[in-house]
Amino acid sequence: MPTSSTLHTPSRSIGGPAFHPRAALAVLLFAGTVFAFLAVAVTTGAPITLLDADVAQWLHVHAHANSSLRGALLLLTHVHSTPGILALAVVAAIWLYRQGQRYWILALVAAVPGGQLLNALLKQMFARVRPQFAEPLLELATYSFPSGHALGATVLYGVLACYAARQARSRAGRVLPFVLALAMVATVSFSRMYLGVHYLSDVVAGLAEGCAWLALCLTGVAILARRRPDLAGRAGAAVPEDSPR
């Protein structure tokens, strides 16, 4: 996910995200490269697909033997389904609205619903079949690559982590939101592999897709915030000096 260096500036009164073009570009290029590598690998049957199969089989055996962890991860994965992630985004948007953070709401809307649409298009493009087992824990008719759960968790918790880091007054306060967001994204992603509905490369690709899309959304909203500070509401009294002109 884009880190606090992508969004944090000394000016804290702006309603929208701050904008560091180089950091955003670095995130976009790195995440895009990872996604492209995985996309080529899974479509050409590269050796990583063998690792995918081995990891999926090992986790499937473990999941059948551990009902407690399986139940907890089932709950987590259902909460972060497409309807669940959109509901969480609505709750977050309402809270941001009450804080007067109009541009952060725009960033959230662009990142979460927009990311879900992008993921649906990519799934149809690659049409990768999900892992197959004799006794599956979950059965889904949709395609596997890239993981929509990993994408959704990345963009949702990424936006919230960036906002929290933007408000923090200490270094620890700027780092902690990203640690918590990474922990949530990793757990959600692991749940998809553990329950046998995604390969390892699916969730890594979803993470990369989410980071790239999040960088694009935050950059676009930051540019809009710089050009239209009058729309930022009560939180938009100032514009960060490092925003583009």
UniProtKB/TrEMBL annotation:
<feature type="transmembrane region" description="Helical">
    <location>
        <begin position="203"/>
        <end position="225"/>
    </location>
</feature>
<protein>
    <submittedName>
        <fullName>Phosphatase PAP2 family protein</fullName>
    </submittedName>
</protein>
<feature type="transmembrane region" description="Helical">
    <location>
        <begin position="72"/>
        <end position="97"/>
    </location>
</feature>
<keyword id="KW-0812">Transmembrane</keyword>
<dbReference type="InterPro" id="IPR000326">
    <property type="entry name" value="PAP2/HPO"/>
</dbReference>
<dbReference type="Pfam" id="PF01569">
    <property type="entry name" value="PAP2"/>
</dbReference>
<dbReference type="InterPro" id="IPR036938">
    <property type="entry name" value="PAP2/HPO_sf"/>
</dbReference>
<feature type="transmembrane region" description="Helical">
    <location>
        <begin position="103"/>
        <end position="122"/>
    </location>
</feature>
<feature type="transmembrane region" description="Helical">
    <location>
        <begin position="175"/>
        <end position="197"/>
    </location>
</feature>
<keyword id="KW-1133">Transmembrane helix</keyword>
<feature type="transmembrane region" description="Helical">
    <location>
        <begin position="23"/>
        <end position="51"/>
    </location>
</feature>
<feature type="domain" description="Phosphatidic acid phosphatase type 2/haloperoxidase">
    <location>
        <begin position="103"/>
        <end position="218"/>
    </location>
</feature>
<keyword id="KW-0472">Membrane</keyword>
